[in-house]
Specification:
Elements (H helix, E strand, L loop, with lengths): L3 E4 L2 E4 L4 E7 L8 E7 L6 E6 L6 E3 L7 E6 L4 E6 L8 E8 L16 E2 L3 E6 L1
């Protein structure tokens, strides 16, 4: 069982930056692929970015590429999402997720591929 705890959300003005963190429990963290998703009320959870377990390969949703950067620190069991040039449309609850089969496959972009989820952290971007 893996527990994930996100932090770093908050209120920021448009054009600003935030860095989200996700702390993971478990001794096999480095083998998990990790993903970031976001969700707004009434909408489905949307893929943001993911990073592989073994090779730390990354994948992003096209519309966010260049503004968001996902990274991980396996020694600390942490995964991060650096968000720059934020716009009001980035307002959402952001979730991190873990894919326990990440050691055999690359990072995935669909929510059902992930086994464990954090509770989410709210990001609000004001105009």
């Amino acid at each position: 069982q893996v527990q994930l705890v996100e932090s770093g959300g908050g209120l920021v003005q448009a054009g600003g930056s935030l860095r989200l963190s996700c702390a993971a429990s478990g001794r096999t963290f480095s083998t998990y692929a990790m993903g970031w998703f976001r969700q707004t009320p009434g909408k489905e959870r949307e893929f943001v970015a993911a990073i592989g377990g073994i090779d730390s390969s990354t994948v992003y949703t096209d519309s966010l590429k260049g503004r968001f950067t996902v990274s991980r620190d396996n020694a600390k069991n942490m995964v991060y999402l650096q968000m720059n040039s934020l716009i009001p449309g980035d307002t959402a609850v952001y979730y991190c997720a873990a894919d326990r089969r990440g050691f055999v496959r690359g990072p995935k972009t669909t929510a059902f591929e992930y086994d464990y989820w954090g509770q989410g952290t709210q990001v609000t971007v004001s105009s």
